[in-house]
Amino acid sequence: MWFGESRKASMAASLYEPLDEREQRRLARTLDRSERARREFEALQRVVASVPRTRPEPGVDLLPRVQARLRATGRVRRAPAHRLAVASAVCAAAVVAFAGLLSVQEMLHSGGDPTLVATPADRSPAANLLREAAARAEQADFGGAYMLLRTIVDRYPSDPLAGTAQLELARLQFDQFANYAEAYRAYRDLRETYPEVFRSRPENADRLDVLAEARRVDYASLEELDAATRRSGGIEALERVIARYPATMTASLAAERMAERIAGADWSAGGGAARLRALEEARDRCTDPVAAARLNIEIADGYWRDLHDPVRARDIGSEALGCGNPEVVEMAQAFLRELGPAAR
After folding, report:
1. Which domains does the chain have, with CATH numbers?
2. pTM beyond cutoff 0.70
């Protein structure tokens, strides 16, 4: 447990009422010592700030008012599409870049998910709430979007669009709040409660795998990856993440971010060859032999799967065998076995 239940209670209580002096000191010490606690506290502040201060009249159905407001304001604008970053290695993992509830926006426009066609807005209160959540997210009001999505899942769990709301809750926890314990639970609930939505995007399973793996170290690997990503430049910090967690999917994500930093604007336009050039430059900058070897496995996999050059893939993958780290050596051996005799 990263900090005690009593301190969690103090953190939550402080959002609604003043703490006594002793509790204020305890909370201040917790926030000073733990970056994770600070991030969670800031996320909770955003959520609480998004809750309306006025109370609705008891027994009043607010849905017609929401629908009238939506009709008056018109359709929400389409959020720009963001690239899907895929970290491909012996164990592949995908991370979806949050795009203002992009999946909701796409679904609610023409040509979207057929479930909305079968369930128009006047018969699905969830559809209107999803529209409002998308609009909130597009305005960077992620706390407000979260509350609306939570309302859908809690009040309308059987609605055809409730699975989409659960997916977006999971993505918010991962992408915006960096609350990985909650993200893990949200993706797990998505898989168990809304399996069709879970299976509709391969990255959902990939992300759940990343979270399940990071859970073994109390999500420290993902938190360190976040901290390294936020640093200006960040190449050396990302290298340290790879060296510390070499046999993980988090290491694959760190390698992708290193390459993206190096490639810059050419990253999305250059295809597989540009990605490999950036990974090779990242490897050449490494001072830690474990990180360099791990990047060699990424590069070798790219030569095999993207450029269809198994001979070059074997040459580079074999270089990772001499790094001295047993986990990386085992990964390299597994990769070379998967290549098989075609690479000789």
Report:
1. 5-45 (no CATH), 74-215 (no CATH), 233-343 (1.25.40)
2. no
